[in-house]
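Researcher: Let's continue the batch. This sequence belongs to DMT family transporter, and it's 295 residues. Same format as the previous ones, please.
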Amino acid sequence: MERDKLGFLLGLVGVICFSLTLPATSIAVDYFGTTVVGLGRTVIAAILVAIILIVRKEKLPSIRQFKSILVVALGAVLGFPLLTSWAMEYLPVSHGAVEVALLPLVTAGFAMLRAGEQPSLKYWLSSLIGSCAVIVYALILGFGQLQFADLALLAAVVLLGFSYAEGGRLAKELGSWQVIAWAILIAAPFFIIPVGLNFTQDMIHAPMQAWISIIYLGVVSQFLAYVAWYSGMSLGGIARVSQIQYLQPFLMILFAAIFLNEAISVMTIGIAIIVLLSVIVGKNTKVTRSDSYKT
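Model: Same format as before. Here are the C-alpha cells for DMT family transporter:
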C-alpha cells in the first residue's frame, strides 16, 4: 500500500510539472518558433542527461530495452513536443488542455496492450466519468469544432499515451530516470542540426520569460517531470496513476490564468471538482498487474 501511495504522489508531482508545459510552450514559441521550442528542449535536456550518465557510468540498455526506448523517444521526445509546439501557435492553452485530458484513457488502453494491466469495471466507470466531464466542458465552451491544430494535438496525445505505457513498463526493470534519459540522448543528435538552422541571432535577445520558459521545458518538462512520472507509474501501476492526468487540464488552465492572464470560469471550477472525484475513485479501484513483459 505504501508503494502505491508513493507512486500516486510521484505521479502527482509529474502532472504538476507537466501542467506548466503548454503555458511555457505558448510563451516560448512566440519568440523561438516551433522547431527550436519543440526540438530544442531535447537538446537542452541532453546536456544535463549526458553529464549524469557519464558521472554515474551507466551501462548501455539491452537490444530489447532499446526498442522500448525508441518508442518513448518517438512519443515523449519527438512527437508530443513538436506537435504541441506547432498547435500552440494556433490554439489557446485552455483549448489544448482539454484535449490533453484524453491522455489517461489512451494510456490505460496501451497499459492493457503493453503492460498486461487489467483495470476493474469500477476503474473504467470512473475514468469514463472523468473523460465525459472534460468533453462536456469542451463542447460547452465551443471547442467542439475541430481545427487542423486539434488533430495535431490528438495525434500528440496518442503518441504520448503509447510512450507513457511503454516507459512505465520499462521503468520497472531499467529505472525511471534511465528510461527518459536514454530516450533523450538517443534523439538529441538528430535534433541539433534543425535547431541550429532555425535559431537566429534575434532569438538571443528574447525576453527573460521566453528564456525561462524554454529552459523549463528542457530541464523540467522534458526530463525531471518524466523521472517522477515514470517512477510513479512503475510503483503505483500505469492505469491507476495515469488517472491523475485528469487534473492536468485544470492545472494547465490555472497556470494559464496566472502566467498568460487567461480567464477561469465558475464552470471550470465545477467540472474540475467532478474530475477530482473521479480521480479519487479511480485511485482506489483494483487493477490487476502482470509482472511479465511483452516484447
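Researcher: Any comment?
Model: Residues 2-288 form one domain.
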